[in-house]
Write a sequence for this structure.
């Protein structure tokens, strides 16, 4: 495993690989190493690129090296009464760079946006071994191409992020979870849609298969109290609302936003129009498990079937499914990402080639990349 100490080390490693025709896999904490097809390539650990470069709480801007553990970043900003608004989550050891590269966002994404919406700037190394800087350390920056949005969620296929500048936000003074029970996924979606569309300014909504619907209300204490008092009337007809203790609510939110407690050897992360979530649940085979987040816009599915039935059902409803957990044989056969239209694949291939002309970061992890490269552009 290659372990650069700083951006200059990383640039040299990439440049050498480009010259020698070698492939490199970028890795933070390694918590998502099982995502994508099995591959045998040199691994570059970014854990050595660790530490805070600059943090200005008054300006709500944090610059941090990519290998810094996510837990350390969250603890740092929490100490200043602030938060990463996209509510990232990860297993023990997850890094901030890996989290942003994977586009991880929690339940608050439905109202606060995703990682790409809070990544202001970055320093990265292209597949040529060249250091480039994109964005800026200010919240208002509209000059040139918005490369940070392109890098967030790119899974290390465009370049190696060495340093990130993130927008942070004040932590809400008060957070209350209100819950109700419903008798069907359709009723759960209806309740969440009504809550998110109401004047109560609900910041997150999730549902579990036992019929529990979770609604989060956050902000200044008087405002939260007034909105919680109004919600039962606003949701009249959907069920009786009650306030849930934080210690009881926290693990339920975790289950909804990560799908971590689902059983089955295969796990899908499905993104689809919220109104389509009940239909997808109805189409799941007997024994499949699920949890619903983003008001129905994300559905985690746990199943033992090693086919693409879930992906096909999601596509039929206007959604797409990512294969996030599966036995090695299935990961070698089934692409991690939903296959895209031919034109989109060709465009993606051209973008990757612009950043990585020597295929240094084309590790075979994503079979769909090879399919795109076979198209004439």
């Amino acid at each position: 495993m290659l372990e650069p100490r700083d951006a200059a080390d990383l640039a040299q490693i990439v440049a050498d690989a480009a010259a020698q025709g070698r492939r490199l896999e970028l890795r933070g904490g390694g918590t998502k190493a099982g995502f994508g097809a099995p591959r045998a390539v040199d691994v570059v650990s970014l854990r050595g690129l660790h530490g805070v470069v600059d943090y200005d709480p008054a300006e709500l801007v944090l610059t941090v090296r990519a290998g810094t553990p996510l837990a350390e970043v969250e603890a740092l900003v929490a100490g200043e009464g602030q938060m990463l608004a996209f509510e990232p989550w990860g297993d023990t050891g997850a890094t901030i760079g890996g989290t942003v590269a994977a586009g991880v966002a929690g339940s608050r994404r439905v109202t606060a946006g995703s990682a790409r919406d809070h990544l202001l700037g970055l320093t990265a190394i292209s597949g040529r071994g060249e250091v480039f800087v994109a964005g800026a350390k200010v919240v208002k920056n509209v000059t040139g191409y918005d490369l940070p949005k392109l890098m967030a969620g790119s899974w290390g296929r465009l370049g190696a992020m060495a340093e990130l500048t993130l927008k942070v936000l004040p932590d809400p003074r008060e957070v209350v979870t209100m819950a109700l029970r419903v008798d069907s996924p359709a009723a759960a979606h209806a309740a969440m849609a009504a809550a998110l569309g109401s004047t109560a300014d609900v910041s997150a909504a999730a549902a579990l298969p036992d019929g529990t619907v979770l609604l989060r209300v956050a902000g200044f204490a008087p405002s939260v109290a007034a909105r919680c008092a109004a919600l039962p009337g606003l949701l009249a007809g959907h069920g009786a609302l009650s306030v849930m203790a934080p210690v009881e609510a926290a693990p339920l939110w975790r289950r909804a936003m990560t799908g971590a407690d689902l059983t089955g050897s295969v796990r899908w992360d499905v993104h689809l129009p919220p109104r389509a979530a009940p239909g997808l649940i109805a189409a799941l085979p007997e024994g499949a498990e699920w949890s619903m987040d983003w008001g129905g816009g994300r559905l985690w599915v746990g199943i033992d079937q090693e086919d693409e039935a879930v992906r096909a059902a999601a596509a039929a409803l206007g959604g797409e499914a990512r294969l996030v957990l599966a036995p090695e044989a299935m990961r070698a056969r089934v692409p991690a990402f939903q296959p895209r239209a031919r034109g989109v694949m060709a465009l993606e291939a051209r973008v990757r080639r612009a950043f990585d002309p020597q295929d240094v970061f084309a590790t075979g992890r994503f079979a769909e990349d090879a399919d795109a490269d076979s198209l004439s552009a």
Q: What stands out?
A: The chain has three domains: 7-170, 174-257, 259-333. Residues 174-257 form a domain with the Alpha-Beta Plaits fold (CATH 3.30.70.2190). The chain has a mean pLDDT of 93.
